[in-house]
Amino acid sequence: MVCDDEWHSYSLLFNGVDDVNLMIDGAAFKADERNPEILDDWPLHQTTAVKTRLVVGACWHGRQQAMAQYFKGSLSAVYLLVGETESQSAIECAHRCPEQLQYTGMDEIIEGQSVTFGIEQSSVTVKAASEEEITKMLRRISYVNTQEKPIPGHRPWILTTTVECSQGKQLSLPAVKGYVFVEREPEPVLSLSGSVTLDVDQHSVKVGTPMISDIQITVSQTGSNGEVKDVTSKHVLDYCKVHLKPSRDMDLEYFSSPASLIASLQIDFEHDKEVRTGRLSS
Known about the structure:
The protein is mainly beta. It is 10% helix and 33% strand. The protein folds into 3 domains: 1-41 and 52-95, no CATH class; 99-182, no CATH class; 189-265, no CATH class. The protein is elongated. The two termini are 51 Å apart.
């Protein structure tokens, strides 16, 4: 057990008495000569002298005929997956926090400096020999949120500083608090522009005339600095429909479409009696 007054997650992957793996906070536990066995192969059989029971964090000591090495702490939840074993990759993924701190100057660390991350990279400790060095290192710490759409709100942070004097005495400076504000991203705006009135002669109508030859479809989005950016290339149009209103004369009016252009753009077209529907193929 990790004894540091913090919450931790333990996963036991049991595939048999000879195949047991322990994962702590989503990371595989590596045993060495200093660690006890993950599985103590001393099965507790049902007996009339001792009441058989399920225990968490305790071992049956056969010589003493008693339970020992109890877990002392708090449990938030216990889950048992019956009949199958969860994969290590699934457990690692469940513990991979999308919000974390990063240090962008690992290649610039010199002698006397160090960078240490806490669990899930929610805390980072930097050490340096001078005020100038520690200032530069603090500027290299960044907040990263890998969610596709980060949840809006503020993320509080606390900076604690300890100074070691030349005589070896340590002084703790007052803590500094701050916030990282994650703003709600504005929704993208779909815009269509072009001529709304079409003036053509009778001959052009008989041979066919483009209805919306100058149409422009764009997607824009307002950034955090208030600047409107064109993000059309980042989005895909699902479908569009073209209607005639009032309905067309079924005997004299009809739609036509450029087959070669449709094929080159890999667009699927659906036809009905009164509507031309263009839908992007998957």
